Amino acid sequence: MSKIKIGTRGSKLAMWQAEEVRRKLSEVHPELETELVVIHTKGDKILDTALSKIGDKGLFTRELEQALLDSEIDIAVHSLKDMPTELPEGLMLGGVLERGEVRDAFISRDGRRLSELTANDKVATSSLRRKAQLLALFPHLTVVDIRGNVDTRIQKMQDGHCDGIVVAGAGMERLGLSNLITEYLDPQTVLPAVSQGAIAIEMREDDEDIYELVDLINHFATWQAIVAERAFLRTMEGGCQIPLACYTSVVEGRFRMDAMVASLDGTKLIKDSFECNPEEASEEAIMLAQRMLENGAEEILNIIRGNE
Ligand SMILES: NCc1[nH]cc(CCC(=O)O)c1CC(=O)O
Hints:
This protein is 36% helix and 23% strand. It contains ten helices and 13 strands. The strands form three sheets. A five-stranded mixed β-sheet has the order 2-1-3-10-4, sandwiched between helices. The chain starts with a strand and ends with a helix. Bound molecules: the ligand NCc1[nH]cc(CCC(=O)O)c1CC(=O)O. The ligand NCc1[nH]cc(CCC(=O)O)c1CC(=O)O binds next to β8 and α7. Monomer.
């Protein structure tokens, strides 16, 4: 293997993440030649519709996956949280980089914290998960939709579209914008998206040379966590259209998952958690999802699906 083509979306955040994979690869294989191939996805093109209304799994990934299947690229770099749990036939997750910041961040126009906002203030997010959890915490808030890349959202806020936005802390840090963050949200109160902060490498299943290479930069503890998180998501059958979240952590060798499912307006919110040895995390995650489905999550999901 002497040259590798790395597929990525063209946003600043996607490019940063692809460059990070490139840096990691050159650490383990200094002679390797790398080329970034920018591919536009449907999610980059439709910018005026709420994500929850497009309701399309793979909005930010499908064109990259087609390029992989067509051998136009050798690996695709994604934000793992944008990847559906079922990958196209012939493709697999090759590895993940060490997870970055997992928490959501709140940014306000005037420096007030979330708890200081009033009923006159508008908070913007495109995520049903964030909306439901914000409303559960602060029912008086008005939550409005927003689309676009992270810097576009900040600009829209500064232009008066809203008084604050909630975005992934990882995105802000990667774009060098951490200084704008008003506060990080406690991850056990506002749970992050499944796999938030993780950068994933997708590849062809039969590409052994690439697998050997990618495996060298796979971060095992992150891998263990995201496999469990995606097992939870798969069992819950959630896509981005459902307010669903989980936060995983390892404390003194014990793996812990906190999970939540909520109604769209945040009035019903189910939380549950488990702790186990890291090797048992996926099995426990599936049982957690089943337990939550029995304890009311199924009912919430049925109502949401019925409204679609
Ligand atoms: N849904 C868009 C998206 N996909 C990945 C990130 C940030 C990086 C990450 O969370 O891994 C973001 C922006 C955001 O949610 O604010």
